[in-house]
């Protein structure tokens, strides 16, 4: 039976490698005796491929050139990398160190602003207050009189403002009233919905010489309150801050007898430390 040449040529690669069966070998060799074309195709396959050699050693000058360029390129990469690291480090310290520096500088250079002229009262209290006083950490100042009138005998007044980073306020107003006005003001204050305050910043109450008429207390931002001597004098006080302490040395600016008993808003006061542990 005559075998198709295409079949034989498909088998030639395997035949040349000795990877066909004995029967297939006999069939292919028998086909060679009958088909000169397939025999020549096989002979071509068996001709060894020419060996190609490459000169892998580069010319001496070229080798020097490449080495020199690599050296120069390596130095450039090193310099660029070093410059990048220095720049990033400098930027880091500029941003974060600068922010810390500004904070420290601000706390050192901030001035304490103090005003004892009661004619300036409306600049600090009420709806016409200046921008930095209009919203004192959202503390309720309605305990204070909205304005100073001719019927009020102002004995003492002071407004203190300090803002090293966060605004802090200390203000008090001491007024003596005529009997009718005093009674009306006491009634106004006693009708105020006072908040709990005992325990805030170590407070246990107020001096025996004064009766508390009204108080707005905030565990984070301080106190606004009014005291009376029981006769004709009413003292209005606000101590407003944040972060559970005052940078301002408040004892330098207010008579201690106006302060709540046990009040401690100094840095790292026990109440502050307790609140921080809760966070």
What do these coordinates show?
The structure is a single chain. The protein has helices at residues 5-16, 22-34, 36-46, 60-109, 131-134, 179-190, 270-278; strands at residues 113-115, 153-162, 168-176, 211-218, 222-228, 233-240. It is an alpha+beta fold. The chain has 3 domains: 5-46, no CATH class; 57-109; 113-278, no CATH class. Strands 1-2-3-6-5-4 form a 6-stranded antiparallel beta sheet, covered by helices on one side. It is rod-shaped, with a radius of gyration of 48 Å. The relative contact order is 0.09. Residues 102-107 have low confidence and may be disordered.
Helix content: 25-40%
> Structural class of the helices, strands and pairings?
alpha+beta
Number of strands: 6
In sequence order, what are the helices and strands, one letter per element? HHHHEHEEHEEEH
The biggest beta sheet reads: 6 strands, antiparallel
Distance between the termini: 98 Å
Percentage of residues in strands: 15-25%
What is the overall silhouette? rod-shaped
Quaternary structure state of the chains depicted: single chain
Main β-sheet, spatial strand arrangement: 1-2-3-6-5-4
Low-confidence stretches: 102-107
The count of helical stretches stands at: 7
- Report the mean per-residue pLDDT as an integer: 84
Radius of gyration: 48 Å
Number of domains: 3
